[in-house]
Write a structure and sequence with these properties.
Layout (H helix, E strand, L loop, with lengths): L1 H25 L4 H13 L6 H15 L14 H16 L4 H56 L9 E3 L2 E3 L5 H27 L6 H28 L3
Antiparallel strand pairs: 1-2
Helix pairs in contact: 1-2, 1-3, 1-5, 2-3, 4-5, 5-6, 5-7, 6-7
């Protein structure tokens, strides 16, 4: 998603951006002049990501149009990006601030992004669960069918409706075609919903549907292959 890509670009570039501001501040530039120098370097090919360059360019254009520093706005979906630019605005209005303040801002930003990366890496484990869900649901359904078939083989005759006749009473242990189709729909929908929940937990937004769509694709393949799995299982267990 473009919005997620832009947010990632902004947050990945923030530590480098603050470090560059700090270096210019150390050689004597004030914060606003340092910001302009950083913007100039970005346009000349500084290794900033494209999404961040767009935000920085827009921010500096507002300044060039004569807006007061306090009225500038960082137009990005990243709250961390907005926080950093707001902090830079506050430092610029404060006047002759020491580079140590920018270094503290850099340390905070770097640690936050690093913690976010480690958390995201841990959460990616749950994506595997999302991919495995269709397989687990299909395995459960296949197991149920095998168990019902084995029960059927152990009882008396089969009634005309496909049920089992035992002791004068007929009852059905057979999963009808309609019931099977309903289970297939349940598998696909469950895979999609769980995928959305995982994407929300990992990416922070349901607009990223990578896991959900992948899980749906896997579930559709599993559903399409289910007759093959059922035939193989029936042959393996000697069931009709």
């Amino acid at each position: 998603m473009p919005q997620i890509r832009q947010i990632n670009d902004v947050e990945e570039t923030l530590p480098l951006f603050i470090r560059d501001l700090t270096e210019y501040r150390k050689v004597g530039y004030d914060v606003l002049r340092s910001l302009e120098k950083v913007g100039s370097e970005a346009e000349k090919g500084r290794a900033y990501r494209a999404g961040f360059k767009a935000v920085l360019r827009d921010f500096l254009n507002q300044l060039k149009l004569g807006r007061a520093v306090s009225q500038l706005s960082a137009r990005t979906g990243s709250w961390l990006g907005r926080f950093v630019f707001f902090s830079v605005q506050a430092l610029a209005e404060a006047g002759n601030v020491t580079p140590a303040l920018l270094e503290q801002l850099h340390e905070f930003t770097y640690r936050f992004i690093d913690a976010k990366k480690r958390t995201k890496s841990t959460m990616n484990t749950f994506k595997i669960m999302g991919f495995l869900l269709p397989l687990m649901l299909s395995f459960t359904m296949l197991t149920a069918i095998i168990m019902l078939s084995s029960f059927s083989a152990g009882f008396g005759g089969i009634t005309a409706t496909g049920g089992i006749q035992t002791g004068g009473f007929g009852f059905s242990l057979k999963i009808t075609q309609l019931q099977q189709q309903m289970i297939f729909v349940f598998i696909v929908l469950s895979s999609f919903v769980v995928g959305l929940v995982i994407d929300k937990a990992v990416e922070g937004t349901i607009l990223s549907t990578t896991t959900a769509l992948s899980a749906v694709a896997i579930s559709l393949v599993v559903v399409a292959m289910f007759p093959v799995f059922r035939t193989f299982a029936s042959s393996a267990f000697g069931l009709p």
